[in-house]
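Students often ask why we bother encoding 3D structure as a string. The short answer is that it lets us treat folding as translation between two languages. Here is a chain of 472 residues written in the first language.
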Amino acid sequence: MGANSLELTTYDHEVIRYYRTSFSELYHTKNPRYSLFSVMLTVAERSPIVMHLILALAGREIDLKRGDLIEGEGEEEHRDARLISKPKSRALHHYSTALGLMAEVVGHMQGGEAGGVDPDCILTALYLMLMYERMFGSEQGLANHLAGAAIIVRQHCADLARPRLLAREPPGGTAPDQHVAFSRTAQPGSEPQISQYSARLLVRVAFLDAEATSYGIGGEVIGTLYKVMGRQVGSSTAFSPQHGFESLERYAVTLYRNVWGESYPQTELAEDIENRPVFALLSACLQIRFMISQLSNILDRGEDASQPISSVQYAIQATGEHFADLLARANGLSLATDGSRCFVANLRFIVPYYHSVILEFLRLTAASPGLELDGRQRAALRGIMNLAVQAFRHEGDKAMLRIARPLFMVALETDDVLHREWVIERFKGLGSFGARFGRAREFLLRTIDMQQALGRRVDLQERFRISLEGII
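And here it is in the second language, the structure alphabet:
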């Protein structure tokens, strides 16, 4: 029985062991013992909703890997029910139970009873639900959860609008201080303040929201955060995405040290410091991706887009200049570079996103819809492929899972047949991580054939409106 009084079965304990190790390594480059997913497990010890979601998410992935789960198909039609009914029903039972519990919490919040809700628990549940829908659910389910997340952010994170509640420097001094790590451990009588853990989760939820905007869904969470924090995306040509979530990320920089206290290894602390700039680059890239989605909407409506185009151009240029050293270091990596260092793995994972937003922007604003490539597009394609080949050599499909979106853009944009075939093969391998990658592969094949037949790029937003199968 867990600390939150949730009775766990032998199967559940197996799922938790998988979650602690293999699952965490797939979605976080940090040592799984000290990663954000490990922190989530500590929150699950006091939150039945979070524990149910961890068991649902990791359990569903185990079932998929074992072949116990055939997504989108009736189980009796394809397998002996004795082999799959127990693990499949257990993972789905956990998710269904979590949805019910979450509905109760949201009901209390809407009824003005938000005072008893733990922000850390509710944001953890939101993040895990979004991950579940992204991996195993439907596009509509993801859109619904993102809309719900925006409502909760508006209701529960209004304190972000008060600058004194979000310290400019991480609190706690030189000694670990768990009082600022979690909302539950805030000192009695102290002024309300969002926890470091909640700040980190807000950024992660915004990341998922920004990803979804490329497919015409989401956008409310990141828009709400900017509004609450006093910044409107694209409202000025002087907007710099590298500063967008800077206050949240700076505030949460000592999270892991404060969670684990004196037992937190110095090597982990050194890695946190070394990797902070590269994750700031990822944050900037995903915010640019959101700006591109806004630009796409403006173009679809036939409105004057000259100012938004200038805003995105400025954002891409400013980000490239701000992170010029990181981009140069990534360009200097080779197949022989040791991939065991977290910093190297992160460069190979994150820098492709910068090249990817360049491809997305140029595809959207190209003077000619033809398939010709200019120097900027070729440089971006080389940047992605160089790092992707290295990452695949060192980590296999696990690394491809992290850069699926940049690879998606390579397949659509490249005129190199070998590169395109290599990417399509990678998506075939990613099929073991969920049906969405198989759907993305089919989407790519159809769209590439259509582009080749027409001799021009097709409107991706229109293609996604027809079929959202490309979500990755």
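Translate back mentally: The longest helix spans residues 266-300. Keep this in mind for the problem set.
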